[in-house]
Amino acid sequence: MTIGFLVAGIILGIVALYLVSRFGKKFRRPLNKEYFEAQWLELLARVTTPDGMILAVIDGDKLLDEALLKCGYKGKTMGERMVSAQKTFSNNDSAWFAHKLRNRLVHEQGVRLRQSDAKNALAGIRQGLKDLGAL
To answer: Could you tell me if 56 and 114 lie in one domain?
Structure first.
C-alpha cells in the first residue's frame, strides 16, 4: 500500500512538471499594454526621416526584447530569448528579419536602410509585440 502511494506520487509529480513546462508560458501575467502602445507610437513618430527610420528599427527591437523579458522568456541574449519564443510568434521569420537588420545597423558601418526594409522590420516587430500581448 505504501509503495502504491509512492508510485502514484511520483507519477503525479512527473505529470505536474510536464504540464508546467508545456503550458507555463500561457499562464504568464499580462503585459502593460498602455506602456507598450505609448512606446510604439513614440517610436513611429520618428519614421519621418532616414535617421528616424534607423532609430525606429533599433528602438523597436529593444521594445520587443523588453516584452520578451517581461514575459519571462529565458536567454542571455535577445536572440536566445527569440528562440525560446519562436512558437509564440505567428511570423517568426519577420521578427528575425527585424532583429538581424537591427544588428547590421548597429554593428556594421555604412549600412543603408531602404524604406521597404524599415517597413518590413517594423511590421515584424509590431506583429511580435502583438503575439506577446504587448499591443
So the answer is: yes
Q: Does residue 70 share a domain with residue 11?
A: no
Q: SS3 sequence, 73-132?
A: CCCCCHHHHHHHCCCCCCCHHHHHHHHHHHHHHHHCCCCCCCHHHHHHHHHHHHHHHHHH
Angle made by CA atoms 130, 25, 42, in degrees to the nearest 5 = 30
Q: Provide the domain limits for residue 79.
A: 31-132
The pLDDT of 9-19, averaged and rounded, is 67
For residues 58 and 100, state if they share a domain.
Answer: yes
- Whether 95 has a pLDDT exceeding 80, the answer reads yes
DSSP character for 68?
A: H
Q: Which three cell numbers stand for residue 93?
A: 521569420
Q: What's the pTM?
A: 0.79
All cell numbers assigned to 66: 523588453
